[in-house]
Write a structure and sequence with these properties.
The chain is α/β, with parallel strands linked by helices. About 50% of the residues lie in helices and about 10% in strands. Helix 1 packs antiparallel against helix 2 (about 20-35), helix 1 packs antiparallel against helix 6 (about 105-120) and helix 9 (about 180-200) packs across helix 10.
Length: about 450
């Protein structure tokens, strides 16, 4: 009798339900071993972005999708859409803050996505990104060294978890009280350069981690060409000679994370400055050889706006809140579970309630905080329920891929991305990270 095939789904559920990090790592290792045998590799999108910076291709925007809940089911839906549309350039990401409130540490997040790739018969690179690895301005002012070390620890944990794409967000340190633009950007480019160098020191041999910078904090004033030039001039001065720098730049164009919530709980229409996106993307390519500009906080934009990202040659767009909303608002999401979550929020998120805020506004803004505490309960819903919710969101994924023209680019991705097997021997031996061969086993 032959050995029974490993049930990836069973390993995934065990990993999600385990509260022990050693157990999670052991299960993650099993998933990665299966993935390699199926020619599935966690990869960096850096070389593709550098080719775009050299103007070797154009015409589409890479979707970067934050999965806050039902990660396994929604990742499967994304791989199905990608296979159906011959797509290769798409990113799974999770922000520093999201890891906390969704209770998804890097090793779990990357492993669940790899398992989804295995389940859907994917082959080739899988891009996982640390989104908004953000410096806390207040903590940085109090103790710059301690805040920098905290970000380095997060980066190390992420790279060990297979995140070979990292967005550094030190735009929180921009000081608009200064009149000189380069001085405004000083701490931003200083910290970004320092963290880029840290990434280059610890990245796996043979993998050039894709690093993104940010010049305008989401929700603040719109970015300008002067901001970009000042940041890049300082960044290049601060980056050690010979080190590879960033491959893209995030800018502010009029959006906010999660959107602006109206009293009835709906989200206000956003006016996004596509002219700024177009101009700064072009400037980033022509003057600095970057892939272009990155747009954050876009998932709550009106549907008819999304085709403009590809038209303006935006390199990447980040999408998160709408998929969380679709889970909560799905007719298949059990009303009793939603009621239980909202009761939990009344007690556990009470401090976040603002004066004059309606109950609808409070729940809309705070319900993301329940995704971690209720992670196991949501993933414990019947398979048919999860499948039905995922099917609704799959339609949205397909719509977005097509609007962003992120289709028929699998061959392009395969042309530029070299598959590298990375072996992490022991967590405490960071220097033991290395690659073993290229392509399939």
């Amino acid at each position: 009798m032959g050995r029974r095939p490993l049930d990836v789904e069973k390993i995934v559920m065990e990993l999600i339900n385990s509260d022990d990090m050693d157990s999670k790592r052991s299960l993650a290792k099993r998933i990665s071993e299966i993935a390699y045998k199926k020619n599935i590799y966690l990869s960096s999108i850096h070389e593709l972005y550098m080719a775009r910076g050299r103007k070797e291709f154009s015409g589409f925007t890479v979707p970067a999708i934050n999965l806050r809940s039902m990660t396994y089911d929604l990742a499967r839906a994304i791989f199905r859409v990608a296979k159906k549309n011959n797509s290769g350039a798409f990113i799974f990401e999770i922000a520093k803050s999201e890891m906390g409130y969704t209770n998804q540490p890097p090793i779990e997040y990357s492993s669940v996505i790899l398992a989804a790739a295995i389940k859907e018969g994917w082959s080739g690179p899988v891009f996982i990104q640390g989104d908004h690895f953000q410096a806390n301005a207040k903590k940085y002012q109090e103790n710059p060294g301690k805040e920098t070390e905290s970000l380095q620890a997060l980066i190390k944990d992420a790279i060990e978890g297979g995140f070979y794409n990292i967005d550094i967000d030190s735009s929180t340190l921009v000081d608009l009280s200064k009149t000189d633009i380069k001085k405004q950007q000083f701490l931003n480019y200083e910290v970004c350069a320092k963290l880029t160098q840290f990434i280059r020191q610890i990245q796996p041999r043979g993998v050039e981690v894709s690093v993104g910078g940010e010049i305008g904090e989401v929700g603040s004033k719109n970015s300008t060409p002067e901001d970009l030039r000042a940041f890049m001039a300082g960044y290049k001065e601060r980056l050690r000679k010979g080190r590879t720098g960033i491959s893209k730049i995030s800018i502010q164009t009029g959006t906010s994370h999660g959107g602006v919530v109206l009293p009835d709980g709906t989200v206000a229409q956003v006016k996004l400055d596509f002219e700024t996106l177009k101009n700064l993307s072009q400037l980033a390519r022509e003057e600095f050889g970057l892939a272009g500009a990155v747009q954050h906080g876009a998932s709550t934009l009106p549907a008819e706006a999304f085709h403009k990202f590809a038209e303006t040659e935006t390199a990447e767009v980040h999408l998160a809140t709408e998929f969380q909303n679709m889970i909560y608002e799905s007719r298949h999401f059990p009303p009793e579970l939603k009621a239980k979550i909202y009761e939990w929020l009344k007690v556990n998120a009470a401090s976040e309630r603002k004066e004059g805020e309606t109950e609808e506004q409070f729940f809309y803004k705070s319900r993301k905080k329940a995704l971690g505490p209720f992670k196991k309960e949501i993933m414990g819903l019947p398979q048919a329920t999860r499948d039905a919710i995922a099917a609704e969101i799959e339609n949205k994924f397909e719509f977005l891929f097509k609007q962003l023209n992120a289709i028929n680019n699998k061959e392009l991705v395969d042309k530029y991305i070299t598959l590298k097997r990375v072996i992490i021997r022991k967590r405490e031996e960071a220097k033991e990270i290395h690659h073993d061969g290229e392509g399939a086993d």
